[in-house]
Amino acid sequence: MAYRGRPILLKSVTADINNSVGINAPTSTESVGTTVTKTTKASVTRGLPLYTYKDYSPKPCVVYTRNEEEADDLIQCLKGPLGFDMEWRVNRRWESRTALVQFCDEKIILLVQEVIESPKVLKMGANIHNDGKKLYRDFGIRASALLELGALAGTADPDFKQTYNRRIVALAKVVAMYEKKTLAKGDVRTSDWEAELDAEQQEYAASDAHCALMVYKRMMKIAEVQRLTVDPFELTTSVVATHVPPPVSRTTSTASTGTFSSTTTDPPSVLTGDGVPPQPMSPQWMRAYNLWHHKQMPLSGICARLRSPENPLKESTVISYVIRALQADPTLPYSVPRLKELVQQEASSWQRHRDWITQQEANSWNV
Predict the structure, then answer these.
(1) 85: closest CA among 159, 189, 163, 166?
(2) What Gene3D superfamilies is this protein classified in (predicted)?
């Protein structure tokens, strides 16, 4: 489901494209073969037409939405395999939060957490595992069944290794090799993906997800023509936070991987998300905890109860109150999955408390 503070949504609805492996789908081993392998890597995209989903028949109809309820309603339409891509605003001083996630199956492009985390739905792209790790850093979503297109190509197309003898290959090069197209460049790539998208951004984003699916379909066709048995799920990876048992360092937690290393003897239960010892229990923290845990009150209700319906507390403030109560008194009972669900409702709160919650997950697994 979609949550407040998560990336904006882009969806593309199209008629059936089961036969749209390409504009001129290969029909024989020769036509599927490697005319590209004789081309130098530096010139692989030179002179190729620009890739756009608009060239494929039937032409997809792109619909752009920022509405979470609409995204939730459309979840039943998504089926694998799925083209996958992400966009975020470029900032030289810090890593910006993911602003847009695109999924493309044969009918729709959409952001849905259940699909991202499902091990049964194949998601493919270039450098896709690192995208999955960024999603976890930003929103706590653990992506599963991530298929690197370069890994698939190395298995499905013997000629691929003659050109690129590595697992991760840039999407532009893969598209050039298999779709004979070049991906869009220019300012749109580094534009403001956090603002409402214009038509150029929508086309760019839709084409990026669409091309991943088209390349996947062509690779599977190559394997079929060459009579190779390829199970793409055997090549997938999943984002899993790994942990070193306590004691945990105050300063050496690695946010990009969710991995913890140890240099001190401080137990994780007495550290805040910033590695700072918690303050003594506050009555307001305990009140927030009781409303959340014992009263099972929704976040919006707690915000209103702790101040007033007309001027409720910020969601991030209430979430911090609950976290601080649990840190101040480690004996308080709570459900880790339910706590994670609470924190994920406000994206900045997840980034702030991610390391501590991840450690609590690890502790609960070891009980």
Answers:
(1) 189
(2) Ribonuclease H-like superfamily/Ribonuclease H (3.30.420.10)
